[in-house]
Amino acid sequence: EDQVTQSPEALRLQEGESSSLNCSYTVSGLRGLFWYRQDPGKGPEFLFTLYSAGEEKEKERLKATLTKKESFLHITAPKPEDSATYLCAVQGFLPGGGNKLTFGTGTQLKVEL
Amino acid sequence: EAGVTQFPSHSVIEKGQTVTLRCDPISGHDNLYWYRRVMGKEIKFLLHFVKESKQDESGMPNNRFLAERTGGTYSTLKVQPAELEDSGVYFCASSQELGVAETQYFGPGTRLLVL
């Protein structure tokens, strides 16, 4: 069974203080690893998909990287508007197909002035 | 382009009652998913439609849950009768199959509280 563990559960940063969020996973053949952002009262908002070890993707102050066992979401010089819960999810190769996502519990990020 | 929409946004019902949740996917998306997040836990998969057919319903918790997608457009998820443990946020997502790990776009969720 696919599993995703995210750490830390919560993270408080000062504006401009860079840091990284971790996503460790086990999956029976990785089709893709996804990062989503979720604001309170809203649904997950897609950020990145990573497909293979060594891949990196960037968007504004966010950079996602992938190894065979984990993914990191690096936040450079964060701003208060980056405050949100960041979710990691994996999609594995399932017998007979199927595209379900397995999620971690998320990292709740708070960026303060 | 309109995103995934869900109705209602909130629902409060008593144990034993019936509730029906609706999801309208992004236009043209053949894949439709239902997920659920209960308090303090991760978002968990319930089922997956490809057009009007159920591709995978391995996450449905029991036979009190019935999902339909008539005509391959919108979907409904009915809980009958509702139990206390059914409380949580129900998310719908849709995607367009691209042959690799496709991006699933999520709706805002329906917050269900069973008293």
Topology of this protein?
The complex is a heterodimer of chains A (113) and B (115).
Chain A: E1 3-7, E2 10-14, E3 19-26, E4 30-38, E5 45-50, E6 56-59, E7 62-66, E8 70-75, E9 84-92, E10 102-103, E11 107-112
Parallel strand pairs in A: 2-11
Antiparallel strand pairs in A: 1-3, 3-8, 4-5, 4-9, 6-7, 7-8, 9-10, 9-11
Chain B: E1 5-7, E2 10-13, E3 19-24, E4 31-37, E5 44-50, E6 53-56, E7 65-68, E8 75-79, E9 88-95, E10 105-106, E11 110-114
Parallel strand pairs in B: 2-11
Antiparallel strand pairs in B: 1-3, 3-8, 4-5, 4-9, 5-6, 7-8, 9-10, 9-11
Number of helices of chain A: 0
Oligomer: heterodimer
Query: How much β-strand is present in the residues of chain B?
Result: over 45%
Please give the largest β-sheet of chain A: 6 strands, mixed
Distance between the termini of chain A: 41 Å
Q: Give the overall pLDDT of chain B as a whole number.
A: 94
The overall average pLDDT of chain A, rounded, is 95
Extended strand count of chain A: 11
Overall outline of chain A:
globular
The helix content of chain A, as a percent range, equals under 10%
Q: Approximately what portion of the residues of chain A adopt beta-strand conformation?
A: over 45%
